[in-house]
Protein backbone atom coordinates (compact mmCIF):
# COMPACT_ATOMS: atom_id res chain seq x y z
CA UNK A 1 0.00 0.00 0.00
CA UNK A 2 1.25 3.49 -0.85
CA UNK A 3 1.04 6.45 1.53
CA UNK A 4 1.49 10.15 0.81
CA UNK A 5 4.26 12.09 2.51
CA UNK A 6 3.76 15.86 2.36
CA UNK A 7 6.97 17.75 3.08
CA UNK A 8 6.82 21.35 4.28
CA UNK A 9 10.08 23.19 3.75
CA UNK A 10 10.31 26.97 4.00
CA UNK A 11 7.30 28.19 1.96
CA UNK A 12 7.06 25.11 -0.26
CA UNK A 13 5.11 21.89 0.07
CA UNK A 14 6.33 18.83 -1.82
CA UNK A 15 4.71 15.44 -2.01
CA UNK A 16 6.03 11.93 -2.50
CA UNK A 17 4.74 8.40 -2.08
CA UNK A 18 6.15 5.62 0.06
CA UNK A 19 5.41 1.96 0.61
CA UNK A 20 3.76 0.92 3.85
CA UNK A 21 6.36 -0.12 6.41
CA UNK A 22 9.21 1.78 4.79
CA UNK A 23 11.63 3.86 6.83
CA UNK A 24 11.13 7.62 6.67
CA UNK A 25 14.85 8.49 6.62
CA UNK A 26 15.60 6.05 3.82
CA UNK A 27 12.57 7.29 1.89
CA UNK A 28 13.75 10.89 2.13
CA UNK A 29 17.29 9.94 1.09
CA UNK A 30 16.01 7.94 -1.87
CA UNK A 31 14.14 11.03 -3.04
CA UNK A 32 17.33 13.14 -2.79
CA UNK A 33 16.47 15.07 0.35
CA UNK A 34 19.64 16.14 2.15
CA UNK A 35 19.27 14.54 5.55
CA UNK A 36 22.06 14.64 8.11
CA UNK A 37 22.39 11.14 9.55
CA UNK A 38 25.88 10.79 11.07
CA UNK A 39 25.07 7.45 12.73
CA UNK A 40 23.83 5.98 9.44
CA UNK A 41 20.27 5.73 10.72
CA UNK A 42 21.04 3.73 13.84
CA UNK A 43 19.10 6.06 16.12
CA UNK A 44 22.05 7.16 18.22
CA UNK A 45 23.03 10.65 17.02
CA UNK A 46 19.66 12.42 17.09
CA UNK A 47 20.50 14.58 14.08
CA UNK A 48 17.82 13.43 11.60
CA UNK A 49 14.99 15.27 13.33
CA UNK A 50 11.77 15.99 11.47
CA UNK A 51 8.68 17.69 12.84
CA UNK A 52 5.18 16.33 12.47
CA UNK A 53 2.63 18.94 11.46
CA UNK A 54 0.21 16.97 13.63
CA UNK A 55 2.07 16.19 16.89
CA UNK A 56 -0.41 13.37 17.52
CA UNK A 57 1.14 11.41 14.64
CA UNK A 58 3.38 8.34 15.08
CA UNK A 59 4.67 7.92 18.61
CA UNK A 60 8.46 7.96 19.02
CA UNK A 61 10.22 4.65 19.52
CA UNK A 62 12.14 3.83 22.69
CA UNK A 63 15.30 5.23 21.09
CA UNK A 64 13.38 8.35 20.14
CA UNK A 65 12.33 8.78 23.76
CA UNK A 66 15.98 8.44 24.80
CA UNK A 67 17.30 11.00 22.31
CA UNK A 68 14.48 13.55 22.20
CA UNK A 69 13.40 15.69 25.14
CA UNK A 70 9.83 15.63 26.41
CA UNK A 71 9.35 19.16 25.06
CA UNK A 72 10.54 18.10 21.60
CA UNK A 73 8.24 15.08 21.51
CA UNK A 74 5.28 17.20 22.58
CA UNK A 75 6.11 19.70 19.83
CA UNK A 76 6.00 16.91 17.25
CA UNK A 77 9.70 16.18 16.74
CA UNK A 78 10.63 12.64 15.72
CA UNK A 79 13.76 10.90 14.47
CA UNK A 80 13.32 10.11 10.78
CA UNK A 81 15.45 6.98 11.13
CA UNK A 82 13.11 5.64 13.83
CA UNK A 83 9.86 6.49 12.04
CA UNK A 84 8.03 3.79 10.10
CA UNK A 85 5.52 4.91 7.47
CA UNK A 86 2.14 3.35 8.25
CA UNK A 87 -0.11 6.27 7.31
CA UNK A 88 -0.12 9.52 5.36
CA UNK A 89 2.26 12.02 6.95
CA UNK A 90 2.70 15.78 6.94
CA UNK A 91 6.21 16.68 8.08
CA UNK A 92 8.33 19.79 8.28
CA UNK A 93 12.03 19.77 7.44
CA UNK A 94 14.23 22.48 8.90
CA UNK A 95 16.82 24.14 6.68
CA UNK A 96 19.64 21.70 5.96
CA UNK A 97 22.21 23.75 7.85
CA UNK A 98 24.89 21.11 7.40
CA UNK A 99 24.99 22.02 3.70
CA UNK A 100 26.30 25.47 4.68
CA UNK A 101 29.35 24.16 6.52
CA UNK A 102 32.50 26.25 6.47
CA UNK A 103 35.20 24.39 4.54
CA UNK A 104 38.87 25.32 4.74
CA UNK A 105 40.42 25.48 1.27
CA UNK A 106 43.59 27.46 1.94
CA UNK A 107 46.74 25.55 2.73
CA UNK A 108 50.44 26.28 2.83
CA UNK A 109 52.05 25.47 -0.51
CA UNK A 110 55.67 25.00 -1.44
CA UNK A 111 57.08 26.55 -4.58
CA UNK A 112 57.58 23.98 -7.33
CA UNK A 113 58.96 24.12 -10.84
CA UNK A 114 56.03 24.10 -13.26
CA UNK A 115 56.05 20.76 -15.08
CA UNK A 116 52.51 19.36 -15.29
CA UNK A 117 51.88 15.85 -16.55
CA UNK A 118 49.88 17.20 -19.49
CA UNK A 119 51.17 19.66 -22.08
CA UNK A 120 50.25 20.98 -25.51
CA UNK A 121 52.23 21.65 -28.69
CA UNK A 122 51.00 23.53 -31.73
CA UNK A 123 52.25 22.28 -35.12
CA UNK A 124 51.61 22.96 -38.78
CA UNK A 125 51.77 20.04 -41.19
CA UNK A 126 52.39 20.29 -44.90
CA UNK A 127 49.09 19.54 -46.64
CA UNK A 128 49.14 16.50 -48.97
CA UNK A 129 48.99 16.64 -52.75
CA UNK A 130 49.55 14.27 -55.65
CA UNK A 131 53.30 14.63 -55.17
CA UNK A 132 53.07 13.87 -51.44
CA UNK A 133 50.71 11.02 -50.67
CA UNK A 134 52.01 10.10 -47.24
CA UNK A 135 49.35 8.89 -44.84
CA UNK A 136 48.05 11.31 -42.26
CA UNK A 137 49.72 9.26 -39.54
CA UNK A 138 53.09 9.20 -41.34
CA UNK A 139 52.84 12.93 -42.01
CA UNK A 140 52.26 13.56 -38.30
CA UNK A 141 55.18 11.34 -37.28
CA UNK A 142 57.51 13.05 -39.77
CA UNK A 143 56.52 16.50 -38.50
CA UNK A 144 57.36 15.37 -34.98
CA UNK A 145 60.64 13.82 -36.13
CA UNK A 146 59.58 10.29 -35.20
CA UNK A 147 60.66 7.14 -36.99
CA UNK A 148 57.66 5.18 -35.78
CA UNK A 149 54.00 6.09 -36.11
CA UNK A 150 52.75 6.18 -32.51
CA UNK A 151 49.15 7.42 -32.70
CA UNK A 152 46.63 5.09 -31.06
CA UNK A 153 43.64 3.69 -32.92
CA UNK A 154 41.28 6.14 -31.20
CA UNK A 155 43.47 9.07 -32.29
CA UNK A 156 43.72 7.72 -35.83
CA UNK A 157 39.93 7.82 -36.01
CA UNK A 158 40.02 11.54 -35.14
CA UNK A 159 43.09 12.42 -37.21
CA UNK A 160 41.66 13.01 -40.73
CA UNK A 161 38.88 15.37 -39.66
CA UNK A 162 41.03 17.20 -37.10
CA UNK A 163 43.85 17.92 -39.56
CA UNK A 164 41.52 19.20 -42.23
CA UNK A 165 39.35 21.29 -39.90
CA UNK A 166 42.05 23.99 -39.68
CA UNK A 167 44.13 23.51 -42.83
CA UNK A 168 46.54 21.06 -41.18
CA UNK A 169 47.19 23.33 -38.21
CA UNK A 170 46.67 21.27 -35.08
CA UNK A 171 47.42 21.17 -31.38
CA UNK A 172 48.79 17.98 -29.87
CA UNK A 173 47.99 17.01 -26.28
CA UNK A 174 50.65 15.00 -24.47
CA UNK A 175 50.42 12.99 -21.27
CA UNK A 176 54.07 13.16 -20.33
CA UNK A 177 55.59 11.97 -23.64
CA UNK A 178 52.59 10.00 -24.90
CA UNK A 179 50.40 11.58 -27.56
CA UNK A 180 46.98 11.71 -25.90
CA UNK A 181 44.83 13.98 -28.06
CA UNK A 182 44.42 16.15 -31.15
CA UNK A 183 42.64 19.49 -31.51
CA UNK A 184 42.07 21.59 -34.61
CA UNK A 185 43.86 24.94 -34.68
CA UNK A 186 45.94 26.49 -31.92
CA UNK A 187 44.40 25.68 -28.51
CA UNK A 188 47.61 25.82 -26.48
CA UNK A 189 46.22 28.64 -24.31
CA UNK A 190 43.50 26.31 -23.04
CA UNK A 191 45.28 24.01 -20.62
CA UNK A 192 43.68 23.85 -17.19
CA UNK A 193 43.71 21.39 -14.32
CA UNK A 194 41.82 20.76 -11.10
CA UNK A 195 43.04 19.39 -7.76
CA UNK A 196 40.44 17.84 -5.45
CA UNK A 197 40.66 16.87 -1.79
CA UNK A 198 37.89 14.37 -1.05
CA UNK A 199 37.33 14.53 2.68
CA UNK A 200 34.94 12.28 4.56
CA UNK A 201 32.92 15.38 5.41
CA UNK A 202 33.92 17.97 2.83
CA UNK A 203 35.20 18.54 -0.70
CA UNK A 204 37.75 21.21 -1.59
CA UNK A 205 38.80 21.81 -5.19
CA UNK A 206 41.13 24.19 -7.00
CA UNK A 207 41.24 25.28 -10.66
CA UNK A 208 44.67 26.14 -12.06
CA UNK A 209 46.12 27.36 -15.34
CA UNK A 210 48.69 24.70 -16.21
CA UNK A 211 50.54 27.05 -18.56
CA UNK A 212 51.26 29.57 -15.81
CA UNK A 213 50.57 27.82 -12.49
CA UNK A 214 48.07 30.52 -11.52
CA UNK A 215 45.09 29.54 -9.36
CA UNK A 216 41.88 30.78 -10.95
CA UNK A 217 39.12 29.61 -8.60
CA UNK A 218 38.38 27.52 -5.52
CA UNK A 219 35.39 25.39 -4.56
CA UNK A 220 34.25 24.09 -1.21
CA UNK A 221 31.26 21.99 -0.27
CA UNK A 222 30.10 18.97 1.65
CA UNK A 223 30.79 15.44 0.51
CA UNK A 224 27.41 14.25 -0.83
CA UNK A 225 28.05 10.88 0.84
CA UNK A 226 27.57 12.56 4.23
CA UNK A 227 23.87 11.71 4.18
CA UNK A 228 24.84 8.01 4.37
CA UNK A 229 26.86 8.42 7.58
CA UNK A 230 29.40 10.68 9.25
CA UNK A 231 32.33 8.29 9.16
CA UNK A 232 33.81 5.70 6.84
CA UNK A 233 32.58 2.74 8.91
CA UNK A 234 28.97 3.94 8.63
CA UNK A 235 29.37 4.31 4.88
CA UNK A 236 31.02 0.94 4.44
CA UNK A 237 28.10 -0.51 6.43
CA UNK A 238 25.72 1.16 3.99
CA UNK A 239 27.47 -0.53 1.05
CA UNK A 240 27.10 -3.90 2.77
CA UNK A 241 23.49 -3.50 3.88
CA UNK A 242 22.07 -2.09 0.64
CA UNK A 243 22.18 -4.06 -2.63
CA UNK A 244 23.20 -0.95 -4.57
CA UNK A 245 25.00 0.74 -1.68
CA UNK A 246 28.43 0.81 -3.33
CA UNK A 247 26.96 2.23 -6.53
CA UNK A 248 25.21 4.92 -4.45
CA UNK A 249 28.51 5.87 -2.83
CA UNK A 250 30.27 6.10 -6.18
CA UNK A 251 27.46 8.10 -7.75
CA UNK A 252 27.38 10.52 -4.81
CA UNK A 253 31.09 11.31 -4.89
CA UNK A 254 31.16 11.56 -8.69
CA UNK A 255 28.31 14.05 -8.58
CA UNK A 256 30.22 16.02 -5.95
CA UNK A 257 33.35 16.13 -8.11
CA UNK A 258 31.44 16.97 -11.29
CA UNK A 259 29.57 19.73 -9.47
CA UNK A 260 32.92 21.16 -8.36
CA UNK A 261 34.14 21.02 -11.97
CA UNK A 262 31.06 22.83 -13.23
CA UNK A 263 31.24 25.58 -10.62
CA UNK A 264 34.99 26.11 -10.93
CA UNK A 265 34.99 26.37 -14.72
CA UNK A 266 31.91 28.62 -14.74
CA UNK A 267 33.58 30.94 -12.22
CA UNK A 268 36.59 31.29 -14.54
CA UNK A 269 34.56 31.66 -17.74
CA UNK A 270 35.66 28.24 -18.99
CA UNK A 271 34.05 24.98 -20.03
CA UNK A 272 34.58 21.59 -18.33
CA UNK A 273 36.15 20.43 -21.61
CA UNK A 274 38.98 22.93 -21.00
CA UNK A 275 40.16 20.77 -18.07
CA UNK A 276 42.85 18.26 -19.08
CA UNK A 277 43.94 16.84 -15.73
CA UNK A 278 42.42 16.20 -12.33
CA UNK A 279 44.45 15.14 -9.30
CA UNK A 280 42.47 13.46 -6.52
CA UNK A 281 43.46 12.86 -2.92
CA UNK A 282 41.35 11.44 -0.11
CA UNK A 283 41.32 8.75 2.49
CA UNK A 284 41.56 5.19 1.25
CA UNK A 285 37.85 4.50 1.68
CA UNK A 286 36.84 7.57 -0.34
CA UNK A 287 39.10 6.53 -3.22
CA UNK A 288 37.76 2.97 -3.07
CA UNK A 289 34.22 4.30 -3.38
CA UNK A 290 35.26 6.52 -6.29
CA UNK A 291 36.70 3.50 -8.13
CA UNK A 292 33.71 1.30 -7.20
CA UNK A 293 36.00 -1.00 -5.21
CA UNK A 294 34.69 -3.01 -2.27
CA UNK A 295 35.77 -1.43 1.00
CA UNK A 296 34.33 -4.03 3.39
CA UNK A 297 37.70 -5.59 4.28
CA UNK A 298 38.92 -2.25 5.63
CA UNK A 299 36.14 -2.19 8.22
CA UNK A 300 37.39 -5.17 10.23
CA UNK A 301 40.73 -6.60 11.30
CA UNK A 302 43.23 -6.93 9.68
CA UNK A 303 41.96 -3.84 7.74
CA UNK A 304 43.02 -4.70 4.19
CA UNK A 305 42.33 -2.38 1.23
CA UNK A 306 41.98 -3.65 -2.33
CA UNK A 307 44.84 -1.39 -3.43
CA UNK A 308 46.87 1.63 -2.35
CA UNK A 309 48.63 2.24 -5.67
CA UNK A 310 48.80 5.33 -7.86
CA UNK A 311 46.15 5.37 -10.58
CA UNK A 312 46.28 7.33 -13.84
CA UNK A 313 42.96 6.94 -15.66
CA UNK A 314 41.14 8.46 -18.59
CA UNK A 315 38.46 10.87 -17.44
CA UNK A 316 35.70 8.90 -19.16
CA UNK A 317 36.83 5.72 -17.41
CA UNK A 318 36.72 7.51 -14.06
CA UNK A 319 33.25 8.97 -14.72
CA UNK A 320 34.39 12.59 -14.48
CA UNK A 321 32.94 15.00 -17.03
CA UNK A 322 35.90 16.98 -18.37
CA UNK A 323 37.86 16.82 -21.65
CA UNK A 324 37.54 13.39 -23.26
CA UNK A 325 41.34 13.09 -23.49
CA UNK A 326 42.01 14.29 -19.93
CA UNK A 327 43.73 12.19 -17.31
CA UNK A 328 42.66 11.56 -13.73
CA UNK A 329 45.45 10.97 -11.21
CA UNK A 330 44.74 9.24 -7.89
CA UNK A 331 47.59 9.79 -5.45
CA UNK A 332 48.81 6.65 -3.63
CA UNK A 333 47.76 5.74 -0.10
CA UNK A 334 49.68 3.85 2.59
CA UNK A 335 47.12 1.67 4.34
CA UNK A 336 43.41 1.39 5.04
CA UNK A 337 43.51 4.36 7.42
CA UNK A 338 46.47 6.33 6.10
CA UNK A 339 45.22 7.60 2.77
CA UNK A 340 46.34 9.68 -0.16
CA UNK A 341 45.24 12.80 1.72
CA UNK A 342 47.82 12.10 4.42
CA UNK A 343 50.52 11.45 1.81
CA UNK A 344 49.63 14.75 0.13
CA UNK A 345 49.63 16.60 3.47
CA UNK A 346 53.06 15.21 4.35
CA UNK A 347 54.28 16.33 0.92
CA UNK A 348 52.92 19.86 1.39
CA UNK A 349 54.40 20.19 4.88
CA UNK A 350 57.88 19.41 3.55
CA UNK A 351 58.57 17.25 6.62
CA UNK A 352 60.05 14.45 4.48
CA UNK A 353 62.76 16.76 3.08
CA UNK A 354 64.17 18.10 6.38
CA UNK A 355 66.51 16.61 8.95
CA UNK A 356 64.77 17.96 12.11
CA UNK A 357 61.90 15.78 13.33
CA UNK A 358 58.40 17.11 12.64
CA UNK A 359 54.91 15.97 13.60
CA UNK A 360 51.84 16.26 11.38
CA UNK A 361 48.34 15.94 12.87
CA UNK A 362 45.17 15.95 10.79
CA UNK A 363 42.30 15.97 13.27
CA UNK A 364 39.15 14.13 12.26
CA UNK A 365 37.10 11.00 12.74
CA UNK A 366 40.22 9.01 11.96
CA UNK A 367 42.96 11.33 13.16
CA UNK A 368 45.99 10.77 10.96
CA UNK A 369 49.36 11.39 12.60
CA UNK A 370 52.78 11.34 10.90
CA UNK A 371 56.13 11.68 12.67
CA UNK A 372 59.56 11.82 11.07
CA UNK A 373 62.10 13.57 8.89
CA UNK A 374 64.03 13.10 5.65
CA UNK A 375 65.31 9.70 6.75
CA UNK A 376 62.26 8.01 8.26
CA UNK A 377 58.52 8.43 8.68
CA UNK A 378 56.05 6.74 11.03
CA UNK A 379 52.28 7.07 10.78
CA UNK A 380 49.20 5.94 12.64
CA UNK A 381 45.47 6.52 12.55
CA UNK A 382 43.79 7.33 15.85
CA UNK A 383 40.09 6.41 15.96
CA UNK A 384 38.97 9.69 17.48
CA UNK A 385 35.34 9.30 16.40
CA UNK A 386 33.23 12.11 14.97
CA UNK A 387 33.10 14.32 18.09
CA UNK A 388 35.38 16.95 16.53
CA UNK A 389 32.85 17.27 13.71
CA UNK A 390 29.85 17.66 16.00
CA UNK A 391 28.45 14.14 15.75
CA UNK A 392 27.56 12.19 18.92
CA UNK A 393 27.42 15.53 20.77
CA UNK A 394 24.04 16.52 22.27
CA UNK A 395 23.92 19.91 20.55
CA UNK A 396 26.81 19.21 18.19
CA UNK A 397 26.88 20.65 14.69
CA UNK A 398 29.45 21.03 11.94
CA UNK A 399 31.19 24.29 11.09
CA UNK A 400 27.97 25.96 9.98
CA UNK A 401 26.71 29.51 10.49
CA UNK A 402 25.65 29.88 14.11
CA UNK A 403 27.92 27.13 15.43
CA UNK A 404 29.53 28.12 18.73
CA UNK A 405 33.22 28.11 17.80
CA UNK A 406 34.87 29.77 20.80
CA UNK A 407 34.09 30.01 24.50
CA UNK A 408 35.54 31.78 27.51
CA UNK A 409 34.66 32.13 31.18
CA UNK A 410 36.00 35.28 32.80
CA UNK A 411 33.71 37.19 35.12
CA UNK A 412 30.89 35.98 32.92
CA UNK A 413 30.40 33.50 30.12
CA UNK A 414 31.30 34.61 26.59
CA UNK A 415 31.10 32.79 23.28
CA UNK A 416 31.28 33.52 19.56
CA UNK A 417 29.56 31.83 16.64
CA UNK A 418 30.51 31.30 13.02
CA UNK A 419 29.24 34.25 11.05
CA UNK A 420 28.15 36.03 14.22
CA UNK A 421 24.70 34.43 13.92
CA UNK A 422 22.46 33.20 16.73
CA UNK A 423 23.66 29.89 18.18
CA UNK A 424 22.45 26.67 16.59
CA UNK A 425 24.82 24.28 18.37
CA UNK A 426 28.45 23.55 19.18
CA UNK A 427 31.15 22.73 16.60
CA UNK A 428 34.48 21.01 17.28
CA UNK A 429 36.57 24.05 18.18
CA UNK A 430 33.79 25.29 20.43
CA UNK A 431 33.70 21.91 22.16
CA UNK A 432 37.44 22.12 22.93
CA UNK A 433 37.09 25.68 24.26
CA UNK A 434 34.05 24.81 26.38
CA UNK A 435 35.78 21.82 27.96
CA UNK A 436 38.88 23.90 28.70
CA UNK A 437 36.77 26.71 30.16
CA UNK A 438 34.70 24.41 32.35
CA UNK A 439 37.84 22.63 33.55
CA UNK A 440 39.51 25.92 34.49
CA UNK A 441 36.35 26.98 36.33
CA UNK A 442 36.24 23.71 38.26
CA UNK A 443 32.91 22.66 36.74
CA UNK A 444 34.55 19.51 35.42
CA UNK A 445 37.42 17.83 37.24
CA UNK A 446 40.55 16.11 35.95
CA UNK A 447 38.62 12.87 35.39
CA UNK A 448 36.03 14.67 33.27
CA UNK A 449 33.27 14.43 35.85
CA UNK A 450 30.86 17.36 35.60
CA UNK A 451 29.56 19.03 38.76
CA UNK A 452 25.85 19.13 39.48
CA UNK A 453 25.78 22.19 41.73
CA UNK A 454 27.21 21.06 45.05
CA UNK A 455 30.78 21.41 46.25
CA UNK A 456 31.56 24.55 44.26
CA UNK A 457 31.49 27.32 46.87
CA UNK A 458 33.68 29.67 44.82
CA UNK A 459 31.68 29.36 41.62
CA UNK A 460 29.74 32.55 40.79
CA UNK A 461 25.98 32.17 41.10
CA UNK A 462 25.54 33.12 37.44
CA UNK A 463 27.47 29.97 36.50
CA UNK A 464 25.79 27.79 39.14
CA UNK A 465 22.46 28.76 37.58
CA UNK A 466 23.63 27.16 34.34
CA UNK A 467 24.18 23.74 35.89
CA UNK A 468 21.39 21.32 35.04
CA UNK A 469 20.44 17.66 34.78
CA UNK A 470 19.19 16.35 31.42
CA UNK A 471 17.90 12.79 31.18
CA UNK A 472 19.73 11.96 34.39
CA UNK A 473 23.00 13.48 33.17
CA UNK A 474 24.83 16.53 34.45
CA UNK A 475 24.77 19.36 31.91
CA UNK A 476 25.80 22.98 31.54
CA UNK A 477 23.77 25.60 29.71
CA UNK A 478 25.77 27.42 27.02
CA UNK A 479 22.98 29.39 25.34
CA UNK A 480 19.38 29.91 26.44
CA UNK A 481 16.35 29.33 24.24
CA UNK A 482 15.95 33.10 23.89
CA UNK A 483 19.52 33.40 22.60
CA UNK A 484 19.44 30.49 20.15
CA UNK A 485 18.33 30.51 16.54
CA UNK A 486 15.88 27.62 16.97
CA UNK A 487 14.56 28.78 20.37
CA UNK A 488 15.99 25.70 22.06
CA UNK A 489 18.62 25.61 24.80
CA UNK A 490 22.17 24.68 23.83
CA UNK A 491 23.80 22.45 26.46
CA UNK A 492 26.97 20.50 26.89
CA UNK A 493 26.37 17.25 28.77
CA UNK A 494 28.38 14.74 30.75
CA UNK A 495 28.14 12.35 27.80
CA UNK A 496 29.58 15.04 25.51
CA UNK A 497 32.59 15.41 27.80
CA UNK A 498 33.12 11.63 27.71
CA UNK A 499 32.94 11.65 23.90
CA UNK A 500 35.54 14.42 23.85
CA UNK A 501 37.77 12.54 26.29
CA UNK A 502 37.74 9.48 24.06
CA UNK A 503 38.57 11.59 21.00
CA UNK A 504 41.37 13.60 22.57
CA UNK A 505 42.85 10.54 24.29
CA UNK A 506 43.04 8.69 20.97
CA UNK A 507 44.98 11.55 19.36
CA UNK A 508 47.28 12.13 22.32
CA UNK A 509 47.99 8.41 22.73
CA UNK A 510 48.72 8.07 19.01
CA UNK A 511 51.34 10.81 19.30
CA UNK A 512 52.92 9.07 22.29
CA UNK A 513 53.03 5.72 20.48
CA UNK A 514 54.83 7.18 17.46
CA UNK A 515 57.36 8.97 19.65
CA UNK A 516 58.00 5.81 21.69
CA UNK A 517 58.36 3.72 18.52
CA UNK A 518 60.87 6.22 17.12
CA UNK A 519 62.76 6.29 20.41
CA UNK A 520 62.49 10.06 20.80
CA UNK A 521 61.10 12.42 23.42
CA UNK A 522 58.26 14.78 22.64
CA UNK A 523 60.69 17.62 23.37
CA UNK A 524 62.77 16.43 20.39
CA UNK A 525 59.98 17.34 17.95
CA UNK A 526 60.97 20.66 16.40
CA UNK A 527 57.67 21.51 14.71
CA UNK A 528 54.09 20.27 14.93
CA UNK A 529 51.90 20.93 11.90
CA UNK A 530 48.14 21.11 12.47
CA UNK A 531 46.34 20.26 9.24
CA UNK A 532 42.73 20.47 8.13
CA UNK A 533 39.87 22.78 9.00
CA UNK A 534 39.79 21.79 12.66
CA UNK A 535 43.54 22.30 12.98
CA UNK A 536 43.25 25.72 11.36
CA UNK A 537 40.83 27.11 13.94
CA UNK A 538 41.64 25.20 17.09
CA UNK A 539 42.84 27.37 19.98
CA UNK A 540 46.22 25.93 20.94
CA UNK A 541 45.95 26.93 24.60
CA UNK A 542 42.63 25.11 24.99
CA UNK A 543 43.86 22.01 23.15
CA UNK A 544 46.92 21.82 25.40
CA UNK A 545 44.92 22.56 28.57
CA UNK A 546 42.64 19.56 28.06
CA UNK A 547 45.51 17.31 26.91
CA UNK A 548 44.51 16.95 23.27
CA UNK A 549 47.99 18.19 22.32
CA UNK A 550 50.83 17.27 24.72
CA UNK A 551 52.18 20.17 26.77
CA UNK A 552 55.71 19.41 25.52
CA UNK A 553 54.74 20.60 22.03
CA UNK A 554 53.63 24.02 23.24
CA UNK A 555 55.14 26.95 21.35
CA UNK A 556 56.05 24.86 18.32
CA UNK A 557 52.65 24.54 16.66
CA UNK A 558 51.88 25.72 13.14
CA UNK A 559 48.49 25.56 11.42
CA UNK A 560 48.96 24.75 7.73
CA UNK A 561 45.33 24.68 6.61
CA UNK A 562 44.17 22.21 4.01
CA UNK A 563 47.53 20.54 3.55
CA UNK A 564 46.00 17.65 1.61
CA UNK A 565 44.55 20.08 -0.92
CA UNK A 566 47.86 21.96 -1.08
CA UNK A 567 49.66 18.69 -1.78
CA UNK A 568 47.18 17.82 -4.52
CA UNK A 569 47.80 21.21 -6.16
CA UNK A 570 51.55 20.64 -5.97
CA UNK A 571 51.16 17.27 -7.71
CA UNK A 572 48.96 18.87 -10.38
CA UNK A 573 51.65 21.44 -11.14
CA UNK A 574 54.67 19.14 -10.98
CA UNK A 575 55.29 15.60 -12.19
CA UNK A 576 58.23 15.48 -9.78
CA UNK A 577 55.87 16.02 -6.86
CA UNK A 578 53.91 12.88 -7.76
CA UNK A 579 57.22 11.00 -7.69
CA UNK A 580 57.93 12.53 -4.26
CA UNK A 581 54.49 11.45 -3.04
CA UNK A 582 55.23 7.90 -4.14
CA UNK A 583 58.53 8.03 -2.24
CA UNK A 584 56.69 9.25 0.88
CA UNK A 585 54.28 6.32 0.55
CA UNK A 586 57.21 3.90 0.40
CA UNK A 587 59.03 5.59 3.30
CA UNK A 588 56.13 5.61 5.76
CA UNK A 589 56.04 2.75 8.24
CA UNK A 590 52.45 2.29 9.38
CA UNK A 591 51.81 1.54 13.06
CA UNK A 592 48.52 -0.29 13.72
CA UNK A 593 47.34 1.06 17.06
CA UNK A 594 44.78 -1.70 17.66
CA UNK A 595 47.61 -4.21 18.00
CA UNK A 596 49.94 -1.91 19.95
CA UNK A 597 50.16 -2.81 23.65
CA UNK A 598 51.47 0.62 24.65
CA UNK A 599 48.51 2.39 23.09
CA UNK A 600 46.02 1.32 25.77
CA UNK A 601 48.29 2.55 28.57
CA UNK A 602 48.83 5.90 26.86
CA UNK A 603 45.10 6.12 26.11
CA UNK A 604 44.06 5.61 29.73
CA UNK A 605 46.49 8.28 30.91
CA UNK A 606 45.34 10.68 28.18
CA UNK A 607 41.69 10.40 29.24
CA UNK A 608 42.52 12.74 32.09
CA UNK A 609 42.57 16.48 31.60
CA UNK A 610 46.01 18.08 31.86
CA UNK A 611 47.11 19.20 35.30
CA UNK A 612 48.97 22.53 35.11
TrEMBL record:
Domain 2Fe-2S ferredoxin-type: 3-97
GO molecular function: iron-sulfur cluster binding
InterPro entries: 2Fe-2S_ferredoxin-like_sf, 2Fe-2S_ferredoxin-type, ATPase_NBD, Beta-grasp_dom_sf, Corrinoid_activation_enz, Raco-like_middle, Raco-like_middle_sf, RACo_C
Gene3D superfamilies in alphabetical order: 3.10.20.30, 3.10.20.880, Domain of unknown function (DUF4445)
Top-level taxon of origin: Bacteria
Pfam annotation, one family: Raco_middle
Protein name as annotated: 2Fe-2S ferredoxin-type domain-containing protein
The organism's taxonomic lineage, starting at the top: Bacteria, Bacillati, Bacillota, Negativicutes, Veillonellales
Amino acid sequence: MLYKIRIHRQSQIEELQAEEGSNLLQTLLQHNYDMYAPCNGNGTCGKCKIRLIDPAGPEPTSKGHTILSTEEITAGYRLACRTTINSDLDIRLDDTDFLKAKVVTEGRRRKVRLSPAVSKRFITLTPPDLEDQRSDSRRLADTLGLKQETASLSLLRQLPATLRAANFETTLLFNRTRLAGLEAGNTTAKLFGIAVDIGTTTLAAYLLNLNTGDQLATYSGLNPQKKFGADVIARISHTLEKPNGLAEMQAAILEGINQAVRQLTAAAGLQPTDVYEIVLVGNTTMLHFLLNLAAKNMAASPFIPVTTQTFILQAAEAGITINQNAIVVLVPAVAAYIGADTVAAALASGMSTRKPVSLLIDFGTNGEIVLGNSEWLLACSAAAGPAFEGANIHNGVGSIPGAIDSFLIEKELKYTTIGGEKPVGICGTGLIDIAAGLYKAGIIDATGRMATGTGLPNLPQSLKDRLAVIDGMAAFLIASADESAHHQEVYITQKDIRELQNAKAAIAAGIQVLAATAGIRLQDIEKTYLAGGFGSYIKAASAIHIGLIPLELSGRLEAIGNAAGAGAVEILLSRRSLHQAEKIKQKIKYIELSSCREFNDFFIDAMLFTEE
